[in-house]
Amino acid sequence: MVSMYCNRLYANKPELAASRIDAIGYQVGHQLSERYTMERPRFTDHLDAIKFICKDFWSELFKKQIDNLKTNHRGTFVLQDNRFRWVSRMSLDPSENGDLSQENAEAAENKAVQEPNMHLHFSCGVIKGALHNLGIACAVSADPSQLPALSAANILFVILPKVG
């Protein structure tokens, strides 16, 4: 799905593709959060909701918990996944890179960075949608510290709850 938005529908408009992919992720996260919390009481504070995301929600999606959760105790949370599955084994389609001239090599390198970033937009949308369903309006961003060298895929997700 992400590849279709990047390569076909919005090939020349990466910002629009990122926005649309984030919105789809938001819907997915909102619905999954609704499903996974159906039998639970509402969370009383932000920290309980974030812990739910790190343990239960993440386990349902990735069959593992978040590796590390940090906070500055002023509302900002940082979730660290040391082997983020959605980008850790990503590769490009070699048929798209048949001619490896200098221009094509640069284009392939740009694509090698852009495609995982688009998957991270989807992931940020999923987290944002799940938290919004739990009563936390927030902004979510991803810091791909090892892209495009994705063998380890150490990703930091930064959550900034919106005030007011």
TrEMBL record:
Domain of life: Eukaryota
InterPro entries reported in the protein's UniProt record: NO_sig/Golgi_transp_ligand-bd (IPR024096), TRAPP_component (IPR007194), TRAPPC6/Trs33 (IPR037992)
Pfam families: TRAPP (PF04051)
Coiled coil feature spans: none
Protein name (record): Trafficking protein particle complex subunit
GO BP: any one term: endoplasmic reticulum to Golgi vesicle-mediated transport
Species of origin: Malus baccata
GO CC annotation: cis-Golgi network; trans-Golgi network; TRAPP complex
Family listed: Belongs to the TRAPP small subunits family. BET3 subfamily.
